[in-house]
Amino acid sequence: MNLALEGHKLSRGHQRIADYISKHMEDIPFMVEEDIAAACQVSTSTVSRFWSEVGCRNLKEFKQKVKDEMLLSPSQKLQSAFSKMNENDAAASLLVGADYLQQTADRLSQEAFDRAASLLSDAGTVYIYGPGSAESLAALTDFRLTRFGMRVKRLDRGGHELFNLLVHVQPQDVIVIFGFVSESPELSVLLDHGKVKGYRTLLVTDLAVSGMLEKADVTLYTARGQLWEFHSMVAPVALLETLIVAVGKQMEEQAVAGSEELHELRRRYQKVLPKRV
């Protein structure tokens, strides 16, 4: 369950509760407020006041939301997208994604964005991990940064096979991680090993509260819709394109030189390898 919260607006006690719940969601249905209070080292009254922060009247209602969301199937998420589709006005339906763009812009930290651009422009090799629907974002990042003449590799294998690629990552490298919905075992390994090996991590996520946020060197938030909704890639793509332009600006001379060389190659061999329309 994606807790739609901004951590800096919560009290210290409520931050503890939000963090605990994000890490132990599967245990919440079996807990009472006293259990949560003990685990978070806060008072029971602090726990009781927390539920209104996540749009619930009490723990019972929160548990029901958790249960309902965990039972949602992909088809139900697709139905949520269909329900938002305006059959008579495709343009209006297209603008549904504008809300995700606004949410992403509202949460965007200029400092974090600048740090992310610097991480990438200074990287020895940029590794990219984007599982599931994030494969499209990994492919776009690979395509754009390679054009700048950067060394880019994709970590496209999960499970124990991830180790075969991870062993080659060096301290001067950066791993871009697209971590949506929850922290997978692979994401946990990538973030943890960075502290051991010394490489930097850039996390792009739709989670406002998660243990991953503290593990990554830089985190960028992007809205994709609630957990029960069909997740949109409109805002992640826009955020990514904006970041890539910022990276290109920082390495302007190299980026321009690469583009000029690409143009010359196309011109020289256009009859052999014509550009496909």
TrEMBL record:
<feature type="domain" description="HTH rpiR-type">
    <location>
        <begin position="1"/>
        <end position="73"/>
    </location>
</feature>
<keyword id="KW-0805">Transcription regulation</keyword>
<protein>
    <recommendedName>
        <fullName>MurR/RpiR family transcriptional regulator</fullName>
    </recommendedName>
</protein>
<dbReference type="InterPro" id="IPR036388">
    <property type="entry name" value="WH-like_DNA-bd_sf"/>
</dbReference>
<keyword id="KW-0238">DNA-binding</keyword>
<dbReference type="InterPro" id="IPR047640">
    <property type="entry name" value="RpiR-like"/>
</dbReference>
<dbReference type="InterPro" id="IPR001347">
    <property type="entry name" value="SIS_dom"/>
</dbReference>
<dbReference type="InterPro" id="IPR035472">
    <property type="entry name" value="RpiR-like_SIS"/>
</dbReference>
<dbReference type="InterPro" id="IPR000281">
    <property type="entry name" value="HTH_RpiR"/>
</dbReference>
<dbReference type="InterPro" id="IPR046348">
    <property type="entry name" value="SIS_dom_sf"/>
</dbReference>
<keyword id="KW-0804">Transcription</keyword>
<dbReference type="Pfam" id="PF01380">
    <property type="entry name" value="SIS"/>
</dbReference>
<dbReference type="Pfam" id="PF01418">
    <property type="entry name" value="HTH_6"/>
</dbReference>
<dbReference type="InterPro" id="IPR009057">
    <property type="entry name" value="Homeodomain-like_sf"/>
</dbReference>
<feature type="domain" description="SIS">
    <location>
        <begin position="116"/>
        <end position="253"/>
    </location>
</feature>
